[in-house]
């Protein structure tokens, strides 16, 4: 296993859920983190807790290419480099296609696909120049299987899977690429579902009862971060044991 001590890890979507838990674990293991999300107050609170020597932040909307680049540059200016990127920010406003919630479709595409691409773009040339680096993308089990209501969300997460594989092939030998596919875990993600009937349908399937703590997914991010540079675990599927699909 590769030590995380003094590793510089940039994490998007660090104001809650997996991103926040991964940031805490990274700093606990000696890494320095560069955190982005829109809610600046949450990022500030987290960085105050973790210590400004180890954790810095910048309010960042991943749908803005300029803001993503500014986040990476903030990390490079402060710590000298970005070793690893965790492309984690995402939203999941599930609904049936017949509802025509096109603004939500646009938003999912912008955050879940373009946000991941802008994240890659913000560090890729920096990593290629150094001939080393690591990019971890967070997809979903919905990136391997479609359910009624998940057509667009799954579309975005299938895209993350395709982008991860393309990145792996194109950067071969230089950059470690891991795509993580979580099942149901307890985070704020379900709050992004605005269609009441969809939320009720999801809850009636007992998803809330079997969902496991966010820390379990953060541990899988840490596992990927600790891989020896000569090795890449390209896919990790992590579900509650009780989750079927
Ligand atoms: P949370 O809702 O707790 O966290 C989502 C994070 O994304 C927040 O920090 C949020 O911060 C950030 N975010 C959302 N929109 C933007 C934006 N436009 N710009 C920057 N940051 C943004 O959910 P999770 O921790 O669960 O989600 C993390 C990832 O895991 C997502 O990609 C999600 O799709 C994926 N996932 C989650 C599963 C689960 O069961 N929880 C299952 C499968 C995949 P802010 O609002 O401050 O901007």
Describe it for me?
By secondary structure, the protein is α/β, with parallel strands linked by helices. The chain has one domain (8-235): NAD(P)-binding Rossmann-like Domain (Rossmann fold, 3-Layer(aba) Sandwich). The protein is built from eight helices and nine strands. It has helices spanning 17-28, 40-50, 65-79, 102-130, 151-170, 196-204, 207-210, 214-225, and strands at 8-12, 32-37, 55-59, 84-87, 133-138, 175-182, 185-186, 212-213, 235-238. Strand 5, helix 5 and strand 6 form a beta-alpha-beta unit. The radius of gyration is 17 Å and the shape is globular. The model has no long low-confidence stretch (mean pLDDT 97). Bound molecules: NADPH dihydro-nicotinamide-adenine-dinucleotide phosphate. NADPH dihydro-nicotinamide-adenine-dinucleotide phosphate (NDP) binds at residues 12-19, 37-39, 42, 60-63, 88-92, 111, 138, 140, 182, 184-185, 187-189.
